[in-house]
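Predicting holo structure, uridine-5'-diphosphate bound.
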Amino acid sequence: MSKAEKRRVVLKISGEGFCPAHERGISMDAMVRLAEQVVHSAKKGIQIAIIMGGGNILRGGQFKAANNAIQEATAHYMGMLATIINGLALQDAIENLGGDTRLMTALPVDTVAEQYIRRRAIRHLEKGRIILLAGGTGSPFVTTDTAAAQRALELQADVLLKATKVDGVYSDDPEKNPHAIFYNELTYDEVFRQNLRVMDQEAITKCKDHQMPIMVFNFRKEGNLERALYGEQVGTTIK
Ligand code: UDP
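Done. Tokens:
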């Protein structure tokens, strides 16, 4: 296992990865399907850090219209807590399959997860543990995409993998426009120029500034996640 041994990836899984299509909440079946592929790849020597989204439970932005009963910042903290709930579920799913994990959070919740400390996270990865990074950045008004870019940089990942429900990046929403063009490869600037919906602008800017490649791929297609973890081209690469 020469080449795979040192490969390090940061994998962003949105909340939609943790429940069936068009549903909300947590589906342990969805968790187990993800866990199977992740555990298999980790056993082959890929170092994996997973950033969990929280949109299957709630997103801070969704409370904007709710007559200000909940302050926006409060809602964002609720969203960060949602990522910790997902992390706990994914942790058990992975460990049930024999994977070794550490749940780390940028938003301290001492009794359920260890605090995110960069050097400790790297040590876990070197020891073959799958690290689950919850709590986003720990600060409100951003999303877990930004956290994913941030962690990919500081953990010196080879690539930031963004798992989505579509095959990659298109010129338009392929679920609404059947003529949308699929891109195999894009530059960061093309993403900005064409205003393509890939990740938050802040996340892409961070990756662009530090030349962190992003691969966007469909995690629901059989085998895709594992292929992406191994470094195969399975969607759109932005570099
Ligand atoms: N969030 C936050 N700071 C962060 C990351 C997330 O405030 O660093 C909040 C934000 O409200 C966000 C929610 O947590 O909407 C859930 O994360 P996200 O929307 O990124 O989840 P996803 O869309 O990937 O499921």
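The mean pLDDT is 94.
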